[in-house]
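Run log, item B.
One chain of 200 residues. Sequence copied directly from the ordering sheet:
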Amino acid sequence: MAVPGLEERLDALLPQTFCRQCGFDGCRAYARAMAEGRALPNRCAPGGDAGAAALAQVLGVPGLPLDPEYGREMPFAVARIRPAECIGCARCRKACPVDAVTGGPKRLHAVIEAACSGCALCVDACPVGAIEMKEAGREWTRDDAIRSHSRHEARARRIERERREEEALYETLGSGSALERRKAAVDAILALAAKLGKKP
């Protein structure tokens, strides 16, 4: 059983890039695994050796260098989409854990670099290889981590809100005549398409 408050303390030390290189679904999930004794504190490549040492200190375990199986410490880089190659599929937008990608379906997408956490999840999501990581020329700071955490939470709230709205739309399909149900289905699809085309 984890020590009360330990998960929160560990999460606060993580860089909040949500890159999943550690093998967990985001920084909080990794913090939970460490607090429960299921993961060592040397799996966060963005946090580097210094981050691993800080996590180990909180856990009260000996410090270890970064495990190369989970990546290596590198200069902070942000994603950039090459406009001429973007096909507007929006897969990068869906993959971004901090809503740093803007654009609508079948339209040119772009990365809001000030919001990008450098996770590179969009690179793998792009089916045409139109995204590259470019060194940002600066360090990832604690203020960046705080902003990234806030954007990640806001994204989670948005996704949950859209899920509830989608369920409400489809609940209307179970009543009325066949014609009414077909019309409701078309309306639901159009409403969903319009929502996906909006900026977060």
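Observations after the first pass:
- The longest strand covers residues 77-81.
- The helical segments are 6-13, 27-35, 48-59, 91-95, 121-125, 142-171, 178-196.
Flagged for discussion on Thursday.
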